[in-house]
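Q: What does the predicted 3D structure of LRAT domain-containing protein look like?
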Amino acid sequence: MKVHKNIPEHPCSVEILSRPKAGAGELVSVVHQGVKFTYPCGQILVVHITPNEGLCVASFDEFEANLPVSSVHVDERHHIGAVQRANALLMAEKTYSVLTLNCQHVTSFIATGDAQSKELQSVAIGSGLGYLLGATAFKTQSLAIKVGFTIAGGLIGQLLFKKSKLKGTPAKAPSALQI
């Protein structure tokens, strides 16, 4: 649910939030990310993007969706830039794309100015390595064997990413002053 069209200046804290994607299956576990802006008055806003809602500003509770959330603090020197980049994205009303503008692209762009999806990179690298293994070890086998290795490599890359990414400090529940 959209609660604001822009992010106010001067947050006291900026954090990258990570949680399991709601409704994701057991075999493939996807991480959902957003950027949390906390203000001295207790106001907490989370900028994130989803395929259904697009780029939006939500409350912490809406983002959390009753799932475990971990956080990584953004250095205070980058708070002003993070606010400016978040507002630039919100004004541009960009639409979701799994390959070019997913939640990790949005969070890394807001936090650093560089839009990257480490999860997507992990899957691509794992898929490439899986294909190379399948093509090398099973040269005379069917294409289905090679595709199977490609998919398995992608899943392994994604699993390794998940194991490293979901480790973090648990995010604090919002205060009663939240808007």
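A (community wiki): The structure tokens above were generated from the sequence. Helices lie at 60-64, 79-92, 103-112, 118-137, 143-165. The chain has five helices and six strands.
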